[in-house]
Amino acid sequence: MRGGSVAVVGGSIAGCATALAVSRGGAGKVTVFERADAQLRDRGVGIALHNDRYVELESAGYVAADMPWAPLTRRVWTVRDGDAEHGRAVGEQPFPFRAYNWGSLWSELRRRVPEDVDYRSETRIEAVEPDSDGVTLRLPGGRSERFDAVVGADGYRSVVREAMFPELRPTYAGYLGWRGTSADVADLPSDGNDAHNVVFPGGHCMIYRIPDGVGGHRLNWVLYTVPPAHLDVDLSTPTSLPPGGATEELTAYLRALVADNFPPYWAARVLRTPAETTLIQPIYDLEVPQFTSGRMLLVGDAASVARPHIGGGSVKALQDATALEAAAVAGGSWKEVMEAYDTARGPVGSAMVALARRMGSAQVENTPDWSAMRQPEFEAWWGAQNSGSDRSSGFGGHSLKRP
Fold first, then answer.
1. Which helix (H) or strand (E) is 104 found in, with range?
2. Which alpha helices (DSSP H) does 300-374 contain, by range?
3. What pLDDT, on a 0 to 100 scale, did the predictor assign at position 241?
4. Which residues contact 75 (CB under 8 A, 6 or more apart)?
5. I need a labelling partner for 325 at 20 to 30 A (CA). Which of 139, 179, 180, 202 fits?
6. Which of 297, 70, 305 is nearest to 194 (CA)?
7. Which helix (DSSP H) or strand (DSSP E) does residue 21 occupy?
8. How many helices (H) and strands (E) does the chain have?
9. pTM as predicted
10. CB-based contacts of 361: which residues, under 8 Å, 6+ apart?
11. pLDDT tens digits, residue range 264-316?
């Protein structure tokens, strides 16, 4: 990689981290192609980093203490209990996470991208054409540019992955995530340091506080459930439904679900969320045979898509970049770089997808009788999802130190 030219397709969190990685790895020319305009980075949805994974990523130089975050210490799983304002807790667990605002975390990473990186917003890649010792990117207007290597950091609808594996597509998991954020953070329980999972037959809703990027906080929530068959919503093709993109019938169904199944306090918080800050993200799975092919490689959701229940999506993207930097520094040839990166990250991606599927089954597709659950039953249920996991791999992501 030393002295070579590298294109990074995708300029979000994964793309910015990758640009930093290949620059540190010795690339002579780095170009980032981001199809969206810069203002799209104002998205305010929440993400979280496990404290242990944060320490590893901070040591590697990809996150820093001055990036705005909010502490989370405990997660409380709550079921509706008659008219009880906050419902009844069915289980509690330690939750050592740092909550971030997607937009502000992206902004901090974007600021850390070296100035000599050519970052191009509103630039769409129409085709990716590999050859024996490089890759050509086709741009609008008949233009093209050739690079020594191309990194796909362009998410679950990756054009780079399509060039590597033309027949491979993300698979719809059968349910969706309805997300929202609001300024409704006054009088949160436990001073806002708890994450709350409101549970109901056929799903759950995770609610927690995130920074707003300007010194305050917002309430972030995501509700997972299977949409009813009669709504006839075709989500088999990878897509998302931005604010205003959902049908009125689907929105009405989700609002009724909240009103009927949430404790009054949490129902009000969700139902008061402005429509312009809500969106729907269908949930998908994806595994790739390998993370590299010739001079092409994948990071983040372009490589593997794990359902978000494991709390490790952004962690994986940042760790992929960290592993790529290490492979680039150590590798004496492109072949060595590619092989080392694939060896380091391929098994991690597969393990995270498998764990996320188990959690999705337990938490959405085959939910228990929440009303009969107490702490002992909760701990047994939670342990079954994490069977085969250990302290270095599982909920919250995979330890970088694990071989």
1. helix 102-112
2. 313-330, 334-360
3. 85
4. 92, 93, 94, 95, 194, 195, 196, 197
5. 139
6. 70
7. helix 13-24
8. 9, 19
9. 0.92
10. none
11. 999 999 999 999 899 999 999 999 999 999 999 999 999 999 999 988 888 99
